[in-house]
Amino acid sequence: MLKTTIADTHVRLVASQTLLDFLDKHKQHFPEVPEKVARLMKEKGYTVPLTAKIVKGSQEYTKRPTIDHKLLNKLTADVEDRPAEQPLPEKEEEEKPRKDKQTLLFIEEISWLNDTLIKLREQDVCEVFLHELIQTCDLILPQNEYTPRNPELEARCQKLREEQQNRDYQKMTKNVDAGLKNYPEDTISYQLKSLNKQIIAVVQFIFSVAAGFTFGFFGVNLMVGPLPFGFRLLLGVIVALIIALAEMYFLAKKLHEYDEVLDGPKRRKPATPTKATKPSDVEPLKPHAD
After folding, report:
1. Closest to 36 (Cα-Cα) out of 96, 112, 94
2. Alpha-carbon distances, residue 190 vs 22, 143, 182 (angstroms)
3. CA distance 38 to 176
4. Alpha-carbon dihedral sign for residues 79, 83, 89, 92
């Protein structure tokens, strides 16, 4: 599951019995009552005084923006090759009235409650503060929405995790399992041998090219007789170039074989499982030889 943005940023308050009792006790001192507070009191079996004016709140729960299909069809009416129109739903899902199990209070109602408490304290009606009333209430904070992950991505990540665990296990049990001692890639001697092989291949390439140039520049002159300097230089370059191309071919072939040896265990197909389970694409671990 992946977290997305917060669609509804409003903070909600679940009224407790202490808050409801306080509202019912001092309701005669309320000249105005928010609509949500009045609805909450009626749901809990309390009454609202007839002298109190019910004020409709301005805050509503946040909805995600939807596409106005009527406006979109009006704007694209003159567009050619327009796809077939789909019938619009009679009512959008978000236009349906919200049916909550209980009425929740928003910041607007909490601000009204705080202002009312200040006025009651000024009139010496009560000495109650806001934190004393809401400390027993449940506060609902805005949360991120969750979206399911792509199954293909999850399977790929799981495969990579299994491969990493296998590599860690092989590295950890290399000194214990006799079957894994045939892969000393982490030893210093193995690294030095590989480095020496590569250095020898490069030096051999340089000497072969130099020998070819020497043969074309001096050897032909000794066999045939005195030749012009420019012609001898051209012969040396041609022979050296031919030998260089041949050496590069064999060097690339050797390096390719070296890579095949190193990457062979990684591309090896897994053994057929003995149990009737789903085969995995990850190379199975080797059993202990002892």
Report:
1. 112
2. 82, 55, 11
3. 75
4. negative
For residue 80, what pLDDT band results from cuts at 50, 70 and 90?
Answer: low
Q: What is each CA distance from 140 to 8, 22, 47, 105, in whole angstroms?
A: 11, 21, 26, 10
In this predicted model, what pLDDT tens digit does every residue of 235-282 receive, in sequence order? Answer: 889 999 999 999 888 878 877 776 665 555 555 544 444 444 444 454
C-alpha distances out from residue 50 to 28, 47, 115, 156, Å: 9, 9, 21, 66
Q: CA 55, CA 74: separation in Å to the nearest integer?
A: 38
3-class DSSP state for residue 54?
A: strand
- How far is Cα 42 from Cα 28, in angstroms, rounded to an integer? 15
Q: What is the pLDDT of residues 11-29, one digit of tens each?
A: 888 888 888 888 888 888 8
Q: Which residues are CB-contacts of 88 (< 8 A; sequence separation ≥ 6)?
A: 69, 70
3-state SS class at 45:
coil
Q: Which long-range contacts (CB under 8 A, 24 or more apart) does 28-33 make?
A: 29/116, 29/120, 29/123, 29/125, 30/116, 32/112
Q: Check whether 224 has a pLDDT greater than 90.
A: no
The alpha carbon dihedral of 229, 231, 236, 240 has a sign of positive
Q: What sign does the CA torsion over 113, 118, 121, 125 have?
A: negative
Number of helical H runs and strand E runs in the chain:
9, 6
Enter the pTM of the model.
Answer: 0.40
